[in-house]
Write a structure and sequence with these properties.
The protein is an alpha+beta fold and about 150 residues long. The protein has four helices and five strands.
């Protein structure tokens, strides 16, 4: 009797798995994903299209290796990379340099700077000797009270 009950359970489980498998095969993978609300995922997803009057700001992920520029910083820094996407946290930039600062620029561009120089001449000398051989277009940036001076 136990053997019959056990084999009945196995048969029932196999039927459930087969039914689930058939239901999974009826998916329509060529259509966009829909949520239970009936709205398409592009309208309710994490990244949304911005209206003309609003700007979407990309936030730095938690634990990202680049630091924020202090609001009180005044001096010169060397911009080694300016890009329209966040650098991967495994980027060579973070392993090659210490104290990399990321600054969000207008139009969701990102500037990565290094150094802390009290004069433009000191920044230029450092850039010429150590940075220009590695990066294509490094730039010296001046800051006053945490604000970039264009």
């Amino acid at each position: 009797m136990k053997k019959c009950y056990f084999s009945g359970l196995i048969l029932c489980a196999l039927c459930l798995l087969a039914g689930h498998s058939l239901a999974a095969q009826s998916e329509e993978f060529d259509k966009p994903l829909l949520r239970k609300t009936g709205l398409d995922s592009a309208r309710v997803g994490a990244i949304r299209m911005a209206a003309a009057e609003r700007e979407v700001k990309i936030a730095k992920p938690e634990g990202y290796p680049a630091k924020d520029l202090p609001d009180t910083y005044s001096g010169w820094r060397i911009e080694i990379v300016a890009t329209d996407t966040l650098l991967a946290d495994t980027s060579e930039v973070f392993f090659r340099h210490g104290n990399v600062v990321m600054e969000t620029l207008p139009n969701n561009q990102f500037s990565y700077t290094i150094g802390d120089f009290q004069s433009e001449a000191a920044a230029a000398e450092f850039m010429k000797r150590f940075i220009q051989p590695i990066y294509n277009e490094p730039t010296i940036i001046r800051y006053e009270q945490g604000q970039r001076k264009w």
